[in-house]
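FORM 7B: Structural annotation worksheet

SECTION A. Query
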Amino acid sequence: MESNSVSPMPEQNAQAPIAEFDKTPPTPPEDNLPLEDLPPPPTTVNIQEEKEKEAQAESHRHYEEDNEWGCGSWFEYTLVVVLASILLLGSLGLTLFWVIQYKGGFAWREDPVKQFNLHPVLMVAGFITFSGFSILLYRICRCCKRIYVKLLHTVFHALAIPCVALGFLAVLDSHNLAQPPIPNFYSLHSWIGLAAMGLFAIQFVVGFFSFLVLLCCEGATAGFRAALVPIHASFGLTTFVLAVAAAVTGLTEKALFTLGPHYQLFHEEGIVLNTIGVSLVALAIVVGYILQRDEFRYRAHILIRSGDL
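SECTION B. Predicted structure
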């Protein structure tokens, strides 16, 4: 009986061990991308700041362009501009001296001979002095805003209009009221003068309409105005040269009619007339030289944009 005894059962309180698991969340994988490969964060664009930066860059570029010139370039520019200004004012002064000293001054229809004296003075003042300075403004006022230069250019041309009109009326009256009347428009001087007056009128109307009136819709007309700039400049110089040619032929005609055989004897009045003519020819050469130099041009190295026209 003892051999058939059953072994005792294990105690109920004994339990099997339970495995413990780590309940912490898994760590994300490391990002091995370098910072420079990441896209930049979005930034807020300030329009005012961008405009200020563009203005600073523009002014800096202007400063660099102005300082590209050496002493020789500045000397050349100053010399020709001062020389042109002296000739513009000197030719008018010499014409006034000639009329007052040798022709007895001015009058109106009560004295047709002295009324004629208004013609050379007013034509030189309008066609030469005022028009010449209006042309040179684009070389003299290099640091001003272009719209201001345009306005001054228009003002000088507007001052020339009454001078040319009164000068033309004075010569017509002096011829028609003379005893006997003098024929009109038969000489080379009168033909060149009429051509210069016609071109001057067309230039003023086209320039005023194209470069001032059309600014109200500058975006739509920028290409047209940019294409018209070289044409307007070329015909402007042509008009000035025609005016100089008309003045020189008129002085020669007046010397031959007034002095007669004394002209070839180096008469004092003839020397004054020749001096006026030489100064006008020199003026045409100097103005043409200034205009053909790209270095003297207003903002010569910057392309024309709609805001600059």
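SECTION C. Observations
The chain has a mean pLDDT of 81. The helical segments are 47-66, 71-102, 112-116, 118-140, 146-176, 188-211, 218-259, 268-292.

SECTION D. Sign-off
Analyst initials: ____
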